[in-house]
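Input:
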Amino acid sequence: MNGVVEQLQASAAAAEIRRMKSLRPLVQCITNDVVQEVTANVLLACGMSPAMVPGLEECAEFARGAADALLCNVGTPNRENVQAMKLAAAAAADAGKPWTLDPVGAGGTAWRDKAIEELIALRPTVIRGNGSEILAAAGFEHRYKGVDSLDSSASALEAAQALAARSGSVVCVTGETDYVTDGRRTVSVSGGCAMVTLVVGTGCALSAMAAGFAAGASDPLASTAACCLLAKRAAERAGQTARAPGSFHNAYLDALYLLSPEEAAGLMSA
Amino acid sequence: MNGVVEQLQASAAAAEIRRMKSLRPLVQCITNDVVQEVTANVLLACGMSPAMVPGLEECAEFARGAADALLCNVGTPNRENVQAMKLAAAAAADAGKPWTLDPVGAGGTAWRDKAIEELIALRPTVIRGNGSEILAAAGFEHRYKGVDSLDSSASALEAAQALAARSGSVVCVTGETDYVTDGRRTVSVSGGCAMVTLVVGTGCALSAMAAGFAAGASDPLASTAACCLLAKRAAERAGQTARAPGSFHNAYLDALYLLSPEEAAGLMSA
Amino acid sequence: MNGVVEQLQASAAAAEIRRMKSLRPLVQCITNDVVQEVTANVLLACGMSPAMVPGLEECAEFARGAADALLCNVGTPNRENVQAMKLAAAAAADAGKPWTLDPVGAGGTAWRDKAIEELIALRPTVIRGNGSEILAAAGFEHRYKGVDSLDSSASALEAAQALAARSGSVVCVTGETDYVTDGRRTVSVSGGCAMVTLVVGTGCALSAMAAGFAAGASDPLASTAACCLLAKRAAERAGQTARAPGSFHNAYLDALYLLSPEEAAGLMSA
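Output:
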């Protein structure tokens, strides 16, 4: 049993979004080769500053210094970039800055799963993945097909709660409904548009947004849920005009930019 | 002389497209730094699952295991990623899975040409390039200007046939008319829209699509020709609304998503 | 004091744009991981041929041979790609070809600043950056926040002039007004649209355009100013229809493609 799942409070969500926009956090990203551009554009659209700083030679200095938050995404891992993630994550933690892990493709290969395990041991502030990835990262039974999830977020909720309890991280499993949990409390966010799954990088970019939302947050569970809400509202709005993934991509960026905190939270109609 | 060039049969093409969409192949891509996002989005739009898995540490395990097909693209080659392509190609072949080679920029530098030759020796299921690239890969006289082809596909047909006969691969040379040949049979696909040449990655993404089309295909020549047909019809449809490359990019993705197999094959009006 | 700042002459700018379009330069790019696709698409849209050739194994051969101009961009630097930039820049200079340096994120980390200094010592034809980057590269006081500039271009004009005098490069500092200087003459280009700062890679792509504009130019200061003018006019045109960054991205590419040299220079209404 998964305990009581709370609904996200609209006014609290609006406050988190306003706080993020006023901070305009600088989010350092060590992410995969595929989604660099869309990740940067998503961060810019919703009011953050992206900084892709993956180089071994400077990633830790940057995490300790200029960055407000860090994203580590293992979508195209190799020995060197996993090493960079570990150095940067340790530096961020040491400097009291939040960092997010996106365990892309967990369950795909043994080598990748080991890298993910080692990163979870460094205790991310937030872990964000789809159903299959969170099941795999938690060591539960799962199905694998590249970046597509064959497991619903609901079917991964128990795994998310277990992973949160074990790791000390807030765990966010996204899908038709998003669930955000710290192992004790669980908040759900519903809505969105299925077409996000046909635009590469929307999930990876959400993990980067979650890092920025965690910067300066008093409650990473609340900031992550507000982050999910903003993304779901933007996807809904994009889905109102776009009926295919090429158009949807731009409409999603536009909506992230145009939605006010109050509109995103449903306190005002968009 | 190039022998008889057949026209692609509409009903056979529709059947190949239906087969691909029903399989929803997981296409492992080891591709260049420039086109990762557009390649993934093209695969998603036409009903495939992309998986960019280039890391030396996991590329062979993935090719042998989860992947249905593999793309190797030498657009931004270096010692390490060429080594990854060789390992993954050997693993794919060993596991009975098709793989496609895109000899991007063949003829550009001596080092790249050597890498292409070594990959051809591993016998790709399909080799896909523009006129200049296929001429260069076949060892014929050619002209070079980066990713632009200065040689028409028709002028490279004889080279394509010679390369197919020598390599044992199906060779696909694309341009105003696409030609697909195994050295004995040659099929042509015409139509399309010249604006595809102003959107980076459309050719590279076509090679990735060809890998997915070859997964589970009984006849790689037929599956590759059907793949070219789908791309040409999508480009035509995009060209009907978009008059410049920014708009065209999204319209092309939209058309790949919206065209039914019957519309793409011309059995039904789009 | 910054001396007299000249206005760019419309007829001279139109002539530079016509010259570039007629040459259709092949621009070799060694650029960062984030902006590869947008850079290639911008070059294609304005009539150039992109060639991303960053590999240590072939970058110098390509710079000496096929390329008409070279871009070096340190947005995601590591030991290997900085080494590739140095080899390619030396080869380009040796072969009498222009090259552009984009000091992305100057002032961000000590390691990056050292790499930028070493590249400036190789005497780029053009150095292009935003206010904060040019201040940092010139060794002036500056503020840092990732790819966002917290310093206006006007506040960096003196630094740009000092950097030009010291390096022997044309220095271009972009922002609300763009300034192009060789340390003695300074030309300004105004206009544009603030939304370019919300689409990642527009600045990086401008540096690549500047490399192509410098190919075959008798006066790199004039060619760089014409390049800035084309970009500013395209941004204005995009801003007329797009009110958010997703739409703006494509509208900008469309405008770069559709604007004639005479329209860009203001000799004819667009």
